[in-house]
Specification:
By secondary structure, the protein is of the alpha/beta class. It has one domain (4-208): Aldolase class I (TIM Barrel). It contains 10 helices and 8 strands. The protein has helices at residues 4-12, 28-37, 52-63, 77-86, 101-107, 118-127, 141-149, 168-173, 188-193, 196-214; strands at 16-20, 42-46, 68-72, 90-93, 110-115, 131-134, 157-159, 179-181. The strands form 2 sheets. It has a 4-stranded parallel sheet with strand order 3-2-1-8. Strands 4-5-6-7 form a 4-stranded parallel sheet. α2 (28-37) crosses α3 (52-63), α2 (28-37) crosses α10 and α3 runs parallel beside α4.
C-alpha cells in the first residue's frame, strides 16, 4: 500500500483530480482507462455513483498500480470507513466534516475537507486535513482563493466546481495545490455515449494546461 506522502504526490502532479459521477458502475473501468491514457492518475469516484463502494473496490484492484483511486461526496464516518475498506486511498468531503480526519489518519490515507469560508478552511487545516476543498469554486473564483491565501498561505487548496481547461491556469496561479474537474472533463455527453476516446482527448488537454500553468 502507498504511503500518504506518495498519495499526496500523485494528487498534486500534474494536479488534476478527475471527479467521477458515473451513470452506471460498469462505466467506471473504461472511464478510468480513458483518464489514465490521457495522463490523469488521480481519480475520485463519488458516492453518488451507483454501487460506488463496489466500483471503488474494483477500480482499486484493477488500477492501483497506475492511478490513485479515491472516494468523493463522503458525508459521514460510516461511509468514510467503508470506502477506505473498499480500497480508497483518499477521501473527499464537500463539507467541513473534520470528524473524518482521524479515520483517514489511522488508515494512512489522505483527506480533503470541504470549506467555503476562511474560517472553515482554517478549521479543516487545524483538524489535520491534508487539503482544503473549496466548493463550489465557480461562484468564488481564483481571486477569492488568492485573497484567502494572502493571510493563510499554509492552506493547500483544491477548488472544485466550475474548473475547466480555460480557467485552471488562473486557479494554479492563485496558489492552488490541485484542482478537481467534474463535468467540464467528464461531460454528460461522454457518459451518455460512453465516448472514452473523447475523454482521453479531454484529459490530455487538462494535463497539458496544468503543466503549462505550473511551468513543468
Amino acid at each position: 500500500m502507498r504511503g500518504k506522502s506518495e498519495i499526496i504526490s500523485i494528487l498534486t502532479d500534474p494536479g488534476i483530480i478527475a471527479v467521477v459521477r458515473a451513470k452506471r458502475a460498469d462505466q467506471v473501468p473504461p472511464l478510468c482507462e480513458a483518464l489514465i491514457a490521457g495522463g490523469i492518475t488521480a481519480i475520485e469516484i463519488t458516492m453518488t455513483t451507483p454501487d460506488a463502494l463496489g466500483a471503488i473496490r474494483r477500480a482499486s484492484a484493477q488500477f492501483s498500480d497506475r492511478a490513485v483511486i479515491g472516494v468523493g461526496t463522503v458525508l459521514d464516518t460510516r461511509t468514510c470507513q467503508a470506502a477506505l475498506d473498499a480500497g480508497a486511498e483518499f477521501v473527499v468531503t464537500p463539507i467541513c466534516r473534520v470528524e473524518l480526519v482521524p479515520i483517514t489518519r489511522v488508515a494512512g490515507r489522505s483527506i480533503m475537507v470541504g470549506a467555503c469560508t476562511p474560517t472553515e478552511a482554517q478549521i479543516a487545516h487545524e483538524a489535520g486535513a491534508d487539503f482544503v476543498k473549496i466548493f463550489p469554486a465557480d461562484g468564488l473564483g481564483p481571486g477569492y482563493i488568492k485573497a484567502m491565501r494572502a493571510p493563510l498561505p499554509h492552506l493547500r487548496i483544491v477548488p472544485t466546481g466550475g474548473v475547466d481547461v480555460e480557467n485552471l491556469a488562473d486557479f494554479f496561479k492563485a496558489g492552488c495545490a490541485a484542482v478537481g474537474a467534474g463535468s467540464s472533463l467528464i461531460s454528460p455527453d461522454i457518459l451518455q455515449e460512453d465516448n472514452w476516446p473523447e475523454l482521453t482527448r479531454r484529459a490530455k488537454e487538462f494535463v497539458a494546461a496544468a503543466r503549462k500553468a505550473r511551468g513543468s
